[in-house]
Amino acid sequence: MSRIFSGVQPTNNLHLGNYLGAIKNWVELAAQPKNDCIFCVVDLHALTVYQEPEILRANILAVAKTYLALGIDPAKSTIFAQSQVKEHVQLGWVLNTIAKMGELERMTQFKDKSAQNKNNINLGLFAYPVLMAADILLYDTNLVPVGEDQKQHVELARDLALRFNKLYGETFVVPESVIKKDGARVMGLDDPSKKMSKSAVSANNYISLMDTPAVARKKIMKAVTDSGAEVKGGADKPALNNLLGIYSLLSGASVKDLEKQYAGKGYGDFKTGLADEVEKFLVNFQNKFNAISDKGIEKVLTEGAGKARQLAVAKINLVKNKIGIL
Ligand code: AQP
User: Is 197 within any annotated ligand binding site?
Assistant: First the structure.
C-alpha cells in the first residue's frame, strides 16, 4: 500500500493549471487500489496572504467540492481541511527547529512571492515549506503528486525527514514527489514565461474552473501567440506549446495529432477548437460542482478530518516521545 498526500490552497477558484498539473494525477492515483490517498485543503497556507474571512470560509468548501467534482471519491480517499487537524501545526513547529534559514531562503517560491508582494513578507510565507513538510510527514506519505513548482518543497520535506531520523532515530517515511511530464507546468495565457497562477494580477492569465464558457473562450482568443501562423509546436513556440499541451490533456489527443488536425489552418481555428474543448470540460465540471451542497461537503470534511486525526495523533505522539516532550 502506498500513502499519497497532496493539497491545494483555498486562495481563489482553482484553474486549469491546478487541475492538469496536480488534481488530474490525484484522480489517476486514487483509482489504483494499491494507493491510500489523503487530499487536504491547505487553508493555513492560504493565510500567508491576507484573506477576507468570509471569502476564505467559502473557498475552503469550494476547493473541497472541486476535488469531488473533478473525480475524487470521498468514500475511497480522505478529504479534510488542514486547520481541522491541529497536529499539522505542532509538527510544523518541531520541524522549524531543524530547518535552516539558508535552505528556506533558497526556496524559489519564497523568492518569487516576496518579490511580488514586498509589503507582506511575513514569517509564515518564509516557513511555508516547513509546514508543508509537516503536512506530508505526518501521514507517512510515500508519494506527493504535485506540479513542477512544488518539487523543491517536497525535496525539503525529504531533507527534514532524513535529518530528523538521523537525530532521533527512524520516525518519518522519506517521501517522493510525483510530477507528470505533461501538464507539470501550465503557463499563463497572457505570459507563457510564467506559470498559470490563481493570484496572477490579470484574470487573463488563467482559466478558472468557474469561468463561464464565454469568458474562457474570450481568454483563449486573447491568449498570447508566437510569431508565425502554423500550428506546430517547437522550442521557439512557448505560447503555442502551452496551448497545445492544454488541448492535448483535455481532449486525450496527442500534440502530434492536433498538429495534423490543424495543418494548413491558422491560430484562429486552433483557438476555436481549444475553446470548444475547454467549454465541454467546464460545463461537465460545473454541473457536478453545483450539485454538491455546502452541508454535504461539510460532512465530507468532518468525516475526513476524523480519519486524518487518528493518523496524525499517533504520529505526533511518536514524535513527542522521540524528542522528549510531554
Ligand atoms: N501553472 C501550473 N501548472 C501546473 N501545476 C500547477 N500547480 C499550480 N499552478 C500550476 C499545482 O497545483 C497544486 C496546488 O497549488 P497551490 O494552490 O498549493 O499553490 P500554488 O502552487 O502556489 O498555485 P497557484 O495557482 O500559483 O496559487 P497561488 O497563486 O495562490 O499561489 C500544486 O501541486 C501545484 O504544483
Answer: yes
- For 2-179+293-323, CATH number out of 3.40.50.1820, 1.10.260.40, 3.40.50.2000, 3.40.50.620 equals 3.40.50.620
Residue-wise pLDDT tens digits, 16-66: 999 999 999 999 999 999 999 999 999 999 999 999 999 999 999 999 999
Choosing from 26, 111, 197 the residue with most ligand 1 atoms within 8 A of its CB, the one to mutate for a pocket test is 197
Residue 13 has a pLDDT of 86
- Judge whether 147 is annotated as a binding position: yes
CA of 148 to the centre of ligand 1 (A): 9
pTM across the whole model = 0.95
The Cα–Cα gap between 196 and 245 comes to 13
Could you read off the pLDDT of 135-161 as tens digits, one per residue? 999 999 999 999 999 999 999 999 999
Ligand 1 atom with the shortest distance to the CA of 186: 3
34 is in an annotated binding site: no
| Active-site option among 24, 65, 100, 113 | 113
The distance in angstroms from the start CA to the end CA of the chain is 32
Helix 108-116 vs helix 151-168: crossing angle, to nearest 10: 130
**Which CATH class for the 203-289 domain?**
mainly alpha
| Residue 282 cell numbers, joined | 467546464
